[in-house]
Amino acid sequence: MRKKQEEVVSEDKEKVANEEPKKKDNEIDQEKLDKIKDEIKSTKKKIKENPKNKQIKKDIIRNVLIAVVITVYFLFINLGVNAIPATEYVLDLQTFSIFAIIIAIIIFERAYKKDANYLALHGIEMIVVAIETLVILQFYSAESKYFYYVLFGVMLGMVLYYIIKSLVIYIRAKIKKK
């Protein structure tokens, strides 16, 4: 009986001895997994904290907001056609155009002081809005049957411009990262 007990005890010791290395292998794997998780977390933090990523997001959001404002501007011009008498509507379009040029001049001055190319580009875009407003005024004054088509085309063109511009900013940023 003692021999059987000793055999059972020796078998148990062998099992325990065989299990310990497996646990160590699992612990090593767990340690490796923890290191990998920490590296992934630190990489994600670096990506989020990267100032270039913040600038890209800021540029894209700025362009989307400008597109929304310009769309609302042209929608109000469209709504004003039927709601405002003709003489007042013409005067409003002239005023809007002059106001857009004044805003463009202010933006150009700020771009010059800050030496910021993106502000100069926004100034050019405001001049284009002023010119488009004058084109709309000309079509309205000529009582053209294409007035609504021109108005819709101008609005759609500006929206497409800002969407494409945002995509170009995003794609350029992705290319620079690689």
Question: What's the short story on this structure?
Answer:
It contains five helices and no strands.
Task: Describe what you observe in this structure.
- The protein is an all-alpha fold and 178 residues long.
- The chain has two domains: 1-44; 55-177.
- The chain is 93% helix and 0% strand.
- The chain has helices spanning 2-49, 51-83, 86-114, 117-141, 147-177.
- Helix 2 (51-83) runs antiparallel to helix 5, helix 3 (86-114) runs antiparallel to helix 4 (117-141) and helix 4 (117-141) packs antiparallel against helix 5.
- The mean pLDDT is 80.
Radius of gyration: 34 Å
Strand content: under 5%
Which descriptor suits the 3D outline? elongated
Write down the secondary-structure element order: HHHHH
What is the makeup of the main sheet?
A: none
How many strand segments?
Answer: 0
Class per helix and strand makeup: mainly alpha
Number of domains as seen in the coordinates: 2
Distance linking N and C termini: 74 Å
- Residue-averaged pLDDT, rounded? 80
- Considering DSSP H and I runs of 4 or more, what fraction of the residues is helical? over 70%
Low-confidence runs of at least 5 consecutive residues? none
What is the overall number of helices?
Answer: 5
Notable traits:
178 residues; mainly alpha; 5 helices
Topology:
Elements: H1 2-49, H2 51-83, H3 86-114, H4 117-141, H5 147-177
Helix pairs in contact: 2-5, 3-4, 4-5
